[in-house]
Amino acid sequence: MTPTSPGEIEVSVPAMLRDCTEGRTRFTIAATTLADAIQQLMTTYPLLRLHVYRDDGQLRPHVLIYLNDQNTAWLQADDVKLKPGDRLAVLQNVSGG
């Protein structure tokens, strides 16, 4: 069995976090699984990690990560295989009145 080649996926982050991603809100990365994509994103942009994850490694309560149209918190595992053209979005919940 040959390893799967990484595919290019689109990543988007909110404008308020663009200072964490070198001023970009949309860019692509190459990854084979969801876990790989998130790890790569947090390694490449360590400041983003501070805004997305708590010290204990859990997502901050106001942060959502979506793969295509599905909240990754609802997925059974993070070893979901990615296809070229998949979209990963980091979102921040906003509440108030």
Automatic annotation (TrEMBL):
SUPFAM superfamilies: MoaD/ThiS. It comes from the Bacteria. InterPro entries: Beta-grasp_dom_sf, Mopterin_synth/thiamin_S_b, Sulfur_Carrier/Prot_Modifier, ThiS/MoaD-like. Gene3D superfamilies: 3.10.20.30. PANTHER family: SULFUR CARRIER PROTEIN CYSO (PTHR38031:SF1), SULFUR CARRIER PROTEIN SLR0821-RELATED (PTHR38031). This is MoaD/ThiS family protein.
